[in-house]
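Page 47, continued from p. 46.
Same chain as before, 183 aa.
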Amino acid sequence: MSSLHPQLTRVREDLRLAEERLRRLSGGLGEADWLRDAPGGGWSAAACVEHLNLVTLAMLPRLREGLEKARQLQVDPNRRLRKGLIGWMLSAGSGPGRGLRIRTARAFDPHRLPPVDEIMEQWQGLLAEQLVLVEEGDGLPLDRVRMISPVDGRFSYNLYAAMCILPAHHLRHIQQAEKAAGA
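Result:
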């Protein structure tokens, strides 16, 4: 197996970090802990993870479609990938503790929660899909294919930026879930 592009290795590591933090959180929580609203009226830990599921479900088809387009392009597979201005701003601002706050679109507001075990099972499956797409993107010109944001159609960014935005967004909301659960 060839080694993964260093920038995609970082994306994979960030996804694994999100997985580890959520695994640690879930190890000590009961159902009531998952469903308790955050202090100050924020989302519960379960709602944070369900929000991640909703956003990821919207992103994955666009990433798959973009990968198909990227496979048609010829570019040096070892070159540095660029996020572009919008992609850089969104990936930098989406991480934990960042000041960028975007009002959640109704489609991604977790107002109806399935059982917590279903939320977690879906998150794990979606994470596995993201990891596969990162691997499939290796050697492709991910920064040469743009996609429109499923969250806000006013924004578009390249596939590499999208792959960076997802783990940053995961880590932000996992941190929010940790606070909601009192972990």
